[in-house]
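Check this:
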Amino acid sequence: FSAKTEDKDGNSLAFQFLSGAKVTVLASKTSQRYRIQSDSFEDMWLVVKELVQRFDQHFSKLGIKDFKKSFSGPMPLQEYFLSVDNHFQLRVSAQQYQDLLSERAVQFRAIQRRLLTRFKDKTPAPLQNLDSLLDATYNQ
C-alpha cells in the first residue's frame, strides 16, 4: 500500500508495485461505484481482476444476481495494442540474448578445453593468449 493520501474521508486506496507504479481504487460516496485509475494501463489489470473476483464472490454469497460490472468510456485498445507490441519486442530481445549467451557458452567451453590440454602437457607450451581470450569471453 502506498503512503497516506490527501483524502481525509478514507474512500481511496492506493497500491504501489515494486516497479514504482501506483494504482488507486476510489469509492464514490453517493453512487456506490468504484473507480480504478493509474498512469499506466497495464498496471491496473491485477487490481481490477482481484476486485471483480471479490465482488463476484461477495454478491454470489448474498444471492444477488443483478450485480453489474461496467467500463465507462471508449475501450483503450491503443494502449492494449501498445502493451502487446512492447511485450512481443521484449520476448524477441530475450530470445536474441538467449541465443547470444548460448554461443558464448560454447565458445567458453571450447577455450577451456584447449587450455586444459595445454596445462596437461608435460612440456610447457605458450598459452597463445588463450587466457586473455577466456577472460574476454567470460566478460561477454
Observations:
- The mean pLDDT is 87.
- The longest strand covers residues 22-27.
